[in-house]
Amino acid sequence: MKENELIDPPEWPFKLLRFFCKEELVEQVEGDMMETFDYRVETLGLSKAKWLLYRDVFSMLRPFAIKGINFKNSNNITMLINYFKLTIRGIKSNKVTSAISIFGLALAISCCIVLFLFAQIIINANDFIEDADQIHMVTSKAKNQSGDEFIWGKTPDFIGSDFEEQQDGPFMMTRYTKSSAVVRHGDIVIEEPIEYVSEDFLNIFSFELTDGDKSALEKPTQIVLSHKAATKFFGEGYPLNKELSLIINGENVPVTVGAVAAKFPNNTYFDFNILVNEKLNPTTESNAGSMTNATFFKFKNPSIKDQFESSQKNWVAMYNATDPKYKISGFSLIAFDEIKNTPYNIAGNVVGRENISTLYGIIFFGGLLLFIACFNYINIALVSATKRLKEIGMRKSLGATKSQLINQFLSENIFLCIFSALAGLIIAQIALIPIFNSFFPLDFTIDFTSLQLWIFLFVTALFTGLISGLYPAFYVSSFNANEIFKGSEKLGSNKNVIFKIFLGIQFGFTFLIIFSGIAFINNSHFQKELSWGYDNSNLMVIPTSNKSQFLAFKDKVSQYPEVKNIATAAGHVGNKASSIDIVVNDEKSPVLTYDVSANYIDLMELELIEGRNFDQNKASDFDNGLIVNESFIKKYMIANIENDPVITADKRYRILGVVEDFHYDNFYFPIDAAVFRLSSDTTNTMILAKIEGTADLAETRYKMSKDWVSLFPDYPFNGYLQSEIFDDYYRQMSIPTNILILFATISIILSSIGLYGLVSLALAKKMKEISIRKVMGATMKHITIITNKPYLIILSVSLILALPVSHMLVDGYLDQVNAFHVPIDLRVILPSILLITLAIFSTIGLNLLKVAKSRPAENLKER
Amino acid sequence: MKGTNLGEFEELILLVIGVLDTNAYGAAIISQLEEQTDRKPSVGAVHSSLNRLVEKGYLKSRTGESTASRRGRRKIYYDLTAAGQNALIKTREMRNYLFSLIPNISAE
């Protein structure tokens, strides 16, 4: 075999091997595996070779090869098996504490699994596209108007066409232009996003097809539907070769369905809705300045790259000669599998991906929960160790070394963590994943055949086992056998300070999560109650696409008995606005402008606080009248509306009136200056119908859509209710809220378990003292104080520190993303404090109940 | 020293190492086994046997060069020791002897 033909084996198996295999063996074994892999690729094929490679790695999981096992002493294996038995016995004999610790770890691990699925989507983005290293996207380097360079996903249309003729070797290219068209099938008429692509598109991108084949795009009369689009038009029926019509630029183009794509996987960051041959695109091949959203090349031969380099100068010159808005200084190629790793943002990129910071956020949350769970486990492990003091003493007297004891405790711990990981998998599968799926439009599933998942689980279990087991193992094994039997070994006497600090940090984190959860809940309530500055109820908005449609449908709607009032507009709040450039001190600034009919202000119930409304009988109102909002008055510092004209490049406007500020956009954005101008039905395109409060809105809407279809069967009915315009925004805002609530719940549970463990450790230590006090007549109140004082102090300190930090973080975050958010005040602070104190006191109370019930005589008996 | 009896797989490996003469290392042994016996032994099984055979004193190892297809990893060569050769001869003699005692199989 020639050297440059070597296929590199996958990396994962070797990483795993290096993880567990003895160092002196790794080099030799890896070499053998690689060589064998090559040999098998040749004789058995790639997939078989890969499969056998995985098997080989697992076949190395043998005592002689695993790190840390000394083969010379084969008793170790027997020992491990014994430790395993001991673990099982330990779980059986301490059902409650074991259940708590396994449950805590399992809960944290199940969160980690869900977060792992998220991370997997990001890491494996687009990995279902084959030969991603051969596909290249062309990017342009452009400068914006202020002279800053940016990388642009858009490229001029002509870029592939002349290139194709000079190439050698296998080469394919496609353009990808996003557009939209009205799609009609029978009664269904919908405006849909479409993508114009070249015929090789499906040859380049290996999207899975459920019907039809890749050649579908070769005929311009055929289109390719995504699974989603196919279900929209044909339900679950068989859509192949069915006819549809596209209305492009007002022209009716009949097409047939040539292929249907399978449902896109979750990790797709590049997809399509309806693929249409670019020959149907009315704007291509017209001029050198027209742009396409993306251009992709597919080639194996690296010499194409050199040709690309040599021809790009011509392209730059050709494009810049068209005097474009953004001048281009060069083009470059980026491999498709590199796009997801690109550190910079490509403007207008169609292969969008989640920000890498999401991944860090995911790792952070997973780590946080795992930290809390480990900490809990340490506590519980220490508590249960008190019950094993005699066992430890016995083993030590019989000659067990410290390292043997550590081994025992660590391996027991790792076994326990492996159980927990499996339990976590079950929790994730039956509870957590369905919950997460209800938050997102994604459809998470656990792929039980995924090697990555099992490696992740194994590594997490091992890591958790080591982290949570190290301290208890060292601690317990350091006891002196003599002291144990004399009964003078005091448990938990030395390093408790570290534990208290950990406890403080843990509760601080928990508080932060609770605090953010409550702030987000309050915020969504706040925003739903927030007045939009006008009456958004019972308002139907119907955009039309031409004059005759507008007039005919306005006439139709005005005959509806339930329609109270009709206004018309060319620009409407929440839908569409134009802008005028206002000149102040020789500087132009654009201002949001709505062109509306005279009764618009009344119909919308915008609050007029100064001046008067439009008068449609005054020609001057049409000519230069303006109604402005409060922000306008503030921004341009208008003292007197009657004396201060508004000046644009070609006109002087008079301010007729001022309305209260209103929300024209969602609450991410602050309210800026906005104005209304009077316009007439000769230019208006939108119909606004105020419906009687008693009418059924859904029914009215249905009636309108029916009438629309019978009047204009070739055009979609785009009518909507004004109250729905921020629905997407609310939905988006609810995702972080829901996740935070879930995390807050889980962290409260975990932290309470941890505190429970720590307090019961303290009680166990002081049981004799407490018993004597009880016998001598101490009250429960007194006992509570003496046993819990240190914890209450540390928790108070932690809360006092966490409160301002949480306040700052959450307020800062909300400020950054939302111009209008709930004030972080007592309504957030009090419930958070209440919730965490409730958790603390119920945990402590549960322990004290045990003390109250315990019999002093039992505890004082010499055992 | 461990017990000196040879398992079937161990015997096969010793034989293959003998066949490969001075050129016996992990991957070569595996590909020989695959070609000659139609088995697909796992790397783990082969290395665990090699490890045992070294402990029994039947094999010696020496470090060798690396090749491109090993992506820079060095080879470890295995050679039969005198004891290893002896063990092979003994097993073969024992087999032949037992074989000759079977009444219903003709020697041809």
TrEMBL record, chain A:
It is found in: Cell membrane. One of its GO terms (molecular function) is transmembrane transporter activity. It is a multi-pass membrane protein. Residues 98-281, 503-701 form the MacB-like periplasmic core domain. It comes from the Bacteria. InterPro entries: ABC3_permease_C (IPR003838), MacB_PCD (IPR025857), Macrolide_Exporter_MacB (IPR050250), Permease_put_prefix (IPR047699). Keywords: Cell membrane, Membrane, Transmembrane, Transmembrane helix. NCBIfam families: perm_prefix_2 (NF038404). This is ABC transporter permease.
TrEMBL record, chain B:
InterPro entries: Tscrpt_reg_PadR_N, WH-like_DNA-bd_sf, WH_DNA-bd_sf. Pfam families: PadR. Residues 17-88 form the Transcription regulator PadR N-terminal domain. It comes from the Bacteria. Gene3D superfamilies: Winged helix-like DNA-binding domain superfamily/Winged helix DNA-binding domain. This is PadR family transcriptional regulator. It comes from Fulvivirga lutea.
